[in-house]
Amino acid sequence: MLTPKQEAYCQARARGLSQRRAFREAYPHSAKWKDGSVDVNASKLEADAKVSLRVKELQEAAARASVASRTAVIDRMAHLNRYSSEIAAEKASRGIIDKEAISAMMASGSKLLDVLPDDREQPDGAPRVFDFGMILGRGFVDLHRDIQAARFDEYWCEGGRGSLKTSTIAAEIVAGVASVKGRNAVVMRNRTNKLRTSVYAEVKKAARRLDVFGEFAFGKSPLQAVHKPTGNVVYFQGADNVNPEDSPLKGLSFEQGYCAYLWFEEASQFPGYGYIRNVEQTVLRGGDDSPTWTFLSYNPPMSVNAWVNRESREPQDGRIVHRSHFSDVPRAWLGDAFFAIEQALRKRNPKAARHEYDGEAVGTGANVIDPEVIQVRRITDEERGRLEEISHGIDAGSVHPWVHERVGYDVEAGILYVLDEESATGHDAHDTQTAKVLAESLARFGEEDADLWCDSAAPGMIGYYQDQGLAARKAYKQGKNSPRERIRWMNRLAAIVIDPETAPLAAAQFPALEYVITPGGDITETLPKVNDDAIDAVGYAASIWIRQGL
């Protein structure tokens, strides 16, 4: 802990005083010392680790405050200019010349022109000036310069949560589309139903941050953003059809110009680099020698052998791989809650934190659930007796299994227990049969009134169960409870313990479930649609805890 005099010295240094002046202010008795003596003592003081750290903290705080103060001053100047202009115009309409209002308008306008970026009409090909200094994280400064200079064709942006990769790319595209006539953009996700709440929303936020939101017309059918002054368009497309030759991209044409920007958000979810290359060949044409920018943004998949991880390690002309981390982002931008959650996960499951927040590939296979999280063993009576949180999940089926999973959760330890299971196929999976099975199972455990979280794709099953007096409910399957988020939640657990005697299907499916592998051998981040029945049922049961952020 610093002494009062040391703290006074640090405060003086943060105000911009030299070491000599700060020392004399903090230590008044040094006023009669020679300058050389003061300099020596001040240097020794600032060499102290605690003192130098405190000076740095105060200087960074002062820098942030100065930015905020500058913005506030500009806002007040703009308000004064607008207010004085309105007064001058109103009085002029009545034949009165208000010299004071005109003088205030001219003076404030002159000052604003000195501090605001030049927004004169640019010659063709010359980008507008945007103040990226207020929205870029420090880890993206060099990349921004590369993008402005069009030094590369492909920009691979990888990083964990909070690393600003997505928001930065959105801002770069918005700035480019709003700068030069003829520069259009195509923004993609692997599924169309993911566009509106992800990249479409990010582009809108970027337009607001760059103060050009009013220049765009945002449409929802079709999903696009039209820059009104230039006529440039940002198109949003899903990759629901794996073959781009058979997708709407094949017929995509621009009323003017060409596709300058192509962005694959969550690139690891696309079916391999071959798909990326085919889309580039389909979309990036018609611009002659004009520059193009292809962006791939992604959190590196868990497996080092996933296609995007493997491909990013391969040097290629015209490609840059940029890695970003949340530690390069001002804490105020992310908020205290972000860091609290990150630290909690790092304590519970360090490996999951390294993957999710540090952007590290921490596995080698195609497993959907980290094998190190899964424990297939007998769950003791003592463990079962300690569990206070019990939930039930049901996955509908007929050809593939109908599954009921009884699950327990130790919230404090972060351990999920797959306790008991019933499964059926064919005639035995009919609602009339499974309702009896459920009633008997619930009675056996004394849980007759328990909520049954059911596959929402089977409303008939849910209705029948309710008619039989069972507390069947639709499971949460959106947002935090989407299939991908359920898998993310499971991988963040300290452990998933599965009893192979009482939950044999779960014991078989959890360790065996793998991401889809393309015919070319590429590991994707596409979830399989087979042999996941027990995992879905467990996910439905856990949805009540996932929704609460437990």
Write a structural description.
The chain has 550 residues and is of the alpha/beta class. The protein is built from 19 helices and 15 strands. It has helices at 4-14, 19-26, 35-47, 49-92, 99-115, 141-148, 165-177, 199-209, 273-283, 307-312, 331-334, 336-348, 350-356, 381-386, 431-445, 459-467, 483-491, 504-512, 533-547; strands at residues 154-159, 183-189, 216-220, 223-227, 233-238, 258-265, 293-298, 319-324, 374-376, 389-395, 402-410, 415-424, 452-454, 472-474, 495-498. The strands form two sheets. Strands 3-4-5-2-6-7-1-8 form an eight-stranded mixed beta sheet, with helices on both faces. The two termini are 37 Å apart.
- For the termini, the CA-CA separation is 37 Å
| Rg computed from alpha carbons, rounded to a whole number of angstroms | 30 Å
Which consecutive residue ranges, at least 5 long each, have pLDDT under 50?
A: 118-123
Mean pLDDT: 85
Q: How many runs of DSSP E, i.e. beta strands?
A: 15
β-strand percent reads 15-25%
User: What order do the strands of the largest sheet run in, or round the barrel if closed?
Assistant: 3-4-5-2-6-7-1-8
Number of helices: 19
* Share of residues in helices: 40-55%
Structural class designation? alpha/beta
The best one-word shape is globular
Sheet bearing the most strands, described?
Answer: 8 strands, mixed
